[in-house]
Amino acid sequence: MKYAIDLHIHTCLSPCADDDMTPNNIVNMSRIKGLDIIAITDHNAAGNCAAVLEAAGGSGLLVVPGMELCTADEIHLLCYFPDTDTAIGFQEQVFRNLLPVKNREDVFARQVYMNSFDEETGTEDRFLIGACMISTQDAILMARSMGGAVLPAHVDRESFSMLQTFGFIPEEYGFKYLECSKDCNLDSFLQEREDLGHRGFIRSSDAHRLQDILERESWLELEEKSVGCLLDKINGIR
Ligand SMILES: [Zn+2]
Ligand SMILES: [Zn+2]
User: Fold this and answer.
1) How far is Cα 110 from Cα 107, in angstroms, rounded to an integer?
2) Which of 69, 97, 197, 236 would be a feasible disulfide site paired with 132, CB 3.0-4.6 Å?
3) Domain map of the chain by residue range?
4) 171 Cα–ligand 2 center, Å
5) Nearest ligand atom owner, CA of 71
6) How many angstroms separate the alpha carbon of residue 19 from the centre of ligand 2?
7) What pLDDT, on a 0 to 100 scale, did the predictor assign at position 238?
8) What is the C-alpha separation between 126 and 163, in angstroms, rounded?
9) What's the 74 CA to ligand 1 centre distance in angstroms?
């Protein structure tokens, strides 16, 4: 069956996201827009995933715990995990490899943790947007070894894109899918990049504002609506 997806959404834990990207606002907007599956992908962090999963409980919306990791090569990787505990386990490794830079709320923005009632439970001191010290290759291996799946983020963009940084998508990484951004004209993009045509593309919003969350416009065929099925699909197992 085909499901309407948006697998790249930031919460208020990302300093560049709006304050109203709260768990319940994201769940409610995704439901209004008619989505079946969303993923939470904050910069270098997964601490709000559990709250969004809980907020979505019983609604029929499937929420995938994830993270948008910025690797040492300054490439953004979307990492998806089977459950929130695994996502937090991955986050522990990432936090150990972040440069010791503190967030400055006066310069950047607050990085807010929330519970499933949209109540603030704390703020993150580490500055989450910078590159961590984990190489792209190691990050991919680490996420997959924990049962996760990885997508190179927004490969059609100029910044933080594997395609721009490396100039190509290394075959040895085994990617079956790549992410393209919300406004990417895939046909004309692929005319210029014929080398990518054998891969599938997953279009997501990279929403930092509620209104940017996708409508029913990006689809993925899955045997069933489950996190396991989605991870297998991205990993090319089914
Ligand atoms: Zn990004
Ligand atoms: Zn993003």
Assistant:
1) 10
2) 97
3) 2-235
4) 24
5) 1
6) 15
7) 62
8) 28
9) 10
Strand order in the sheet with 2-9: 149-152, 76-80, 62-70, 37-43, 2-9, 219-221
How many helices (H) and strands (E) the chain has is answered by 7, 10
Phi and psi at residue 143, to the nearest 5°: -65, -45
Residue among 231, 165, 157 at smallest CA distance from 7: 231
CB count within 10 Å of CB 223 equals 11
CA of 179 to the centre of ligand 2 (A): 11
Residues 158-167, mean pLDDT to the nearest whole number: 95
What does the block give as tokens for 236? 């090319």
The identity of residue 230, as a single letter, is L
Torsion, Cα of 26, 35, 181, 1 (10° steps): 150
101 falls in which pLDDT band (50, 70, 90)? confident
